[in-house]
Amino acid sequence: MDSETTLLAVLLILVVAAWLNLWRRHRRDKANLRLLFDAVENADYTLRFSERTRQGMGHNSINHWLNRIKEVLQRARDEQMERERYFEMVLNATDTGLMVVDERDNILMRNQAALHLLHAEALTHMSQIPPRMLADERLARHETTTMLRGKRVRIIALSNVEGELDNREVDSWIKLTRVLTHEIMNTITPVTSLSGTLQARLEQDEQEGKEVDGELRAGLETIRKTGEELLKFVQTYRQFTHVPTPAPALFYVRPFLKRMASLCAKPVSVSVEPADLLVYADESLMSHVLANLLKNAVEATTQGGEISVRAWADKEEAIIIDVTDTGEQIPADVAEHIFVPFFTTKPEGSGIGLSLARQIMRASGGTLTLIQDEKRGIVTFRLRLP
What we know:
By secondary structure, the chain is an alpha+beta fold.
């Protein structure tokens, strides 16, 4: 009887010990599982559980599988992050502006093109975008609705149709100008040549002592001068239709802008960040563009006015050059046509300076835009080169 009691007592102790061991392992495994969940939730994948038992012998299968689960989740997250980086690169490489907006008008995502088209450095809410900008007819806008992580969102696509419209308009002007200059040259050249020949005959007759009609001489002189002035006028407009093909090369921006500023009749402050900023463009053509913009700035500023040129690289590594003056603001109806060929508000202006400058920028793969800040009282012409 005593032996049976002893045996039962031993068995009971073994059962209790086994149960306590299982209970402790259960608590430890439960704690490890909680640690794993917390680590995954906080994106901490450095956690690793020991796969050895406390005695240093044997294999802890629970910890082994917890480590395997962590590795699988880590690989899944790494792949997801890699896909997100890839999609972000693709989105930022496109010229179409894209924004993902939730039902509260929070902007969940936007690419660099959207910031560029909306002239913004950062966007987190639709209220930050002026309504007039979204209503701009130069921006084509398309919206679609979808579900993202269980929430309804809007995907807004923006594209700039101004460039396409401007290109068509400029092409039309170029074709028209070529036809007109061709016809004028063909008509005026023979007249000018003939008047010169007749003048030479009159001078010869005068030298031979023959009587020469003074009115005839004056009339031929008028025809000759008018013809030469008209030919000079046509030659000026020919520049608009024959923009040279750019021959780009790397050059430093700072000394280039300093040289251009030194040619101005008024002081010009120059700021370049960083000081060793390089640009890949045709320096000769850029000189023409800067000279035109600086000339306009000098004419626009009154005594005491300021002119500045600032250059830097934006987030897309494009080179930006701002030519700014404190002259009068350009009226909206004038600003709308300021780049149209032959449009001018100056009594003796030709109307090809800014249009030719924009043509050069387009041929160089860049842009030329007008930016006005009424509050600060400044007018800026911005050059952007990729």
